[in-house]
Amino acid sequence: MIRLRDVSLRFGNADRASSVQFRLPDFEVAAGEAVALTGSSGCGKSTLLNLVAGLRRADEGEVSVAGIDLATLSPAQLDRHRGAHCGMVFQTFHLLAPFTAIENVAIGLRFGARKRAHSERASEALRRVGLGNRLRARSDQLSVGERQRVAIARAIAGDAPVLLADEPTGSLDPDTGREVFALLREVAAEDGRTLLMVTHDPALAAELPRHFDCAGLVRPTTVAPGKEAPTA
At what angle do helices 174-191 and 144-156 cross, to 10 degrees? Predict the structure, then answer.
């Protein structure tokens, strides 16, 4: 479902004396697999997720999701591919404050390819995460845990086969965090979705069948001003 081959990505520009570089020779996640990405801050966990989502493009190498090489897609095609194939859950929720729970979920469905009524699908997803009685609550009327459940509902409402979760428990207390983690695992397992989750919590990472240590993916690179940083 997810494949990265000989991927390289530079941060900064060639006119600076130093830059940082993301390098990943080989990474695969099978359909339906659940994988944790672990490692210290700045090691490349979120960058890897952004590459899979198509939010960043690799300078070199192949990034494929659902059999599609993302480098072959135009920006508009990439947006449609992301909407159809990747459901995303973030640490900071990214809900729109003026809108209700159902509106926040329905908005995300506009980027997918499904035809069923957005409100119907949004309601179904919210009930699935235990918020059937909070459909009309604005995001500022929800608890922190409820907001993350809305974010999960938004990620699953479009039937995307890949769930990308970037520190989904990082803003939650331990008990709520564990509930959210269990919900993500349950949804992914029931639907056969592929789950790729960034976490700093070794206990949560240990509960997933596989984890990938991202240490060393991002490295400082020193170059002479006006020259490109090496890519190998």
Answer: 10
